[in-house]
Design brief:
224 residues, mainly alpha, 8 helices, 69% helix, elongated
Length: 224
Amino acid sequence: MQSKARSRLIESKADVDRILFIHGEVSDTTVGRKFGVGCLNKSAIVLTCAVWEAYVEDLCEEAVLHLGNHINNSLGLPAALKSTIGRELASQQASNPETIWDALCGDPKTALLLNFTIVRNKYWSGQPFNTPKWENVDKLYETTLALSNISECWNWQHVRFPKNRTRLNGYVVLRGGIAHRNASPSSINKPHCRDFLELVEHMAEKMDARVHTYLAGLCSVPFF
């Protein structure tokens, strides 16, 4: 079982797989640097980053909706989340956080969705939090679900989350370099593309499990 967000990620990554397949078709099989495939390498990095960004946001929204639909009342929400919701909504309406929360305490779903929209626009879609680096992923989940340090779940085999955080940020920076024409084709190769895609797949698998476990402590209905 998996989230709808992860199902969409798997569908979307097929486009990256296709780019890498074409890469193999147009380049020779000899060892060494390949020529004429720089545009494919850059496209794969940019698309993989887009797939990752969409997954992070989709999973968060899916989790917020699930929590809003299946939590009995506002008393079941974590205190940290109620505080965050009150603060974010108050900042939009120049009101007192406690007043805003009291007005919505009977409708946690509305409060959760309003908060998600504000946070997404403020910290994710807008500046300066418009890149899916690990710090911004953590910020999004903490401010919408009170789920702290979600990137610490990125552990597998002999690779621990600090290294995976560094790997992710490196690829996000690389994506930015491509977008701003600061990265030359020779600095990106097919192994980079495969490594980034595999990293995203692993992180999504771990995040699905982490969110599932977290919501199980707040809702009686399983996340998936």
